[in-house]
Design goal:
There is one protein chain. This protein is α/β, with parallel strands linked by helices. It contains twelve helices and 18 strands. The longest helix is centred in the first third of the chain and has 15 residues. It is globular. The two termini are about 30 Å apart.
């Protein structure tokens, strides 16, 4: 059993390489083992294809015959842009398939397992199921709820401030924390900010780690009042990196024209009060195939996500400084009728990043 878990954990490590680059497909890993030796490895490639099983079978060649394939998600059994992975496993002569997690996609959802068993292949399901579900939470949530997984990233002082009263925020955290934040961008399908963040910081919102990422994450700005200027960096670079401006209907076409001409996609959604309904924004992104969203601010976006229970994970960078009560808080008022209504999270990891601390949480 320990050897089974070791191979599945290796497949999960391979799957994680695809996070942020495989949407709308899940990030899957596959390890093929014959006579105790790993003969093939693969993971979902950028853009969602080729699939992990195809890559691993290609690496294994004839050694796949009679082997065991460890796959982090049930192999697909339907035709898309590529043939079904179940057919590839059958044709390769694999004797056994061990699957961590059943695929929630209604086109699969047990049918892949049935197809393999009908071909005489032994199938086991369940090793490392919880880890596989956590890895592909975004894909699962999109299939079941029509929403992406959301990570809310916060970079604050010890007393939870993201800027001084004069809006100075560069830099609360150090270079090591900023590199870690870029790594977060690389593992998400899209990056979400509010118009205030664009006005205050004029950010690029790109992953600038050495080597870059194969599939640039679309940048999404929630801007009900159309406050973002056409001169913003995000707008000027929209033809290089996909950029979506989420706003409400009714703006004059003359006001929207500069954004369209720059290559920005205009996403018109129903208003909620004076702004946008964050759930509607996320559902619209999920409808485009996005499974993992990194929300980077500001305080209004953070409050909306927390208030509506839409933040699945928190990545909280704390810098060893205090700014004080007149600084800008990480999240504006929720507001809460009682303490029992406060959004609750469970701490899953803590690590030092230079002089700062990164604490990661998941929804309780």
């Amino acid at each position: 059993m320990e050897e089974e878990l070791r191979h599945m954990r290796a497949a999960l490590s391979l799957a994680a390489r695809g996070l942020g680059n495989t949407w709308p497909n899940p990030a899957v890993g596959c390890v093929i083992v014959r006579d105790g030796l790993v003969v093939g490895r693969g993971w979902t490639q950028p853009g969602g294809r080729p699939h992990a099983e195809t890559e691993a079978l290609k690496a294994a060649g004839e050694a796949a015959r009679g082997a065991t394939a460890y796959v982090t998600l049930e192999p697909c059994c339907h035709w898309g842009r590529t043939p079904p992975c179940t057919d590839a496993l059958v044709a390769a002569g694999v004797a056994r398939v061990v699957i961590a997690l059943r695929d929630p996609d209604p086109r699969v959802d047990g049918a892949g397992i049935a197809r393999l068993r009908a071909a005489g292949i032994a199938v086991e399901v369940g090793p490392c199921e919880a880890e596989a579900a956590a890895l592909n939470l975004g894909f699962i949530k999109r299939q079941r709820q029509g929403l992406p997984m959301v990570t809310l990233k916060l970079a604050t002082s010890l007393d939870g401030r993201i800027a001084t009263a004069t809006k100075e925020s560069r830099w609360i955290t150090g270079p090591e924390a900023r590199r870690a934040a870029h790594a977060l961008r690389a593992r998400h399908d899209a990056i979400l900010v509010g118009s205030g963040t664009v006005l205050d910081d004029d950010p690029d919102l790109t992953c600038r780690l050495p080597g870059g990422v194969p599939v640039p994450a679309p940048r999404v700005v929630a801007d009900a009042r159309l406050r973002v200027p056409p001169t913003a960096r995000l707008v000027r670079t929209a033809r290089q990196v996909p950029t979506i401006l989420a706003t409400v209907p009714g703006h004059p076409e003359a006001a929207l024209a500069p954004f369209r001409e720059a290559g920005v996609e205009i996403l018109e959604l129903p208003p909620e009060g004076a702004g946008l309904a964050m759930r509607a924004v996320l559902m619209a992104l999920a409808a485009r195939g996005i499974t993992r969203v990194l929300a980077e601010g500001g305080s209004g976006i953070a409050a909306a996500l927390l208030r509506d229970g839409l933040a699945d994970r928190l990545a909280w960078f704390h810098a060893p400084m205090a700014i004080g009560g007149d600084g800008i808080p990480a999240a504006y008022a929720l507001p809460l009728p009682a303490l029992a209504a406060a959004p609750k999270f469970r701490r899953v990891s803590v690590r030092s990043v230079g002089p700062d601390l990164l604490t990661e949480y998941e929804k309780a």
